Amino acid sequence: MPSEHTEGLLCIGEVARLLNLSVGTLRHYEQMGLLEPAYVNPASGYRYYGSRQLSTLNTIGNLRVLDLPLTQIREFVTTRDMDLMQRQLTKQQELIEHRRRELERMSRKIDQRLALLHGALNADLDTISEIEEPELRCATLHERVNPTDAYSLGWHIRQLQQGQHETFAYLGNLGVGIAPERLAAGDFDGYDEVFL
Fold first, then answer.
1. Same domain for 110 and 157?
2. Which residues contact 35 (CB under 8 A, 6 or more apart)?
3. N or C: which end of the chain has fewer CB within 10 A?
4. Segment 84-110, tens digit of pLDDT
5. What is the pTM of this model?
6. Are 127 and 174 in contact (CB under 8 A)?
């Protein structure tokens, strides 16, 4: 039964259903200092919420959609400092732009790997042919090697990775080369370079 303290207020379950949130989420917001109930029954511990809390929850929901961390949201809902919110949103926009560029870079890498896989699956093996390729970025290790298979080049690949800002994975784009003067002389004993 509503008391004088709870008149016009909603209990925690009603708020959860109304805003499609869990009771646990509302309790978590309270523990973090984001949301103070309008009234807490001292005997039962039941929490009640009014229009002010619903407005705060609406603000929290809008800011969560923008992927703002709860700590930053708390800072805003407790101060209502619009300059602070402007700074937080500007910083969030910069972070999202950085993430967007990273995702585009990863997408390009996946496209490259898929193209390499397609080429490997459709390669005409046991045939030597001359092909023209567009200019590509290559990492090359000029060192005499005699690999028995692609796996034995692992050490050389690790050497190519030294000094790189990011670890790269190789998938089919590994090659070995013979120096032109050795080709001309018909010397095919080993290779003179490993490249990615």
1. no
2. 26, 29, 53, 56, 57, 60, 77
3. N
4. 889 888 988 999 999 999 999 999 989
5. 0.53
6. no
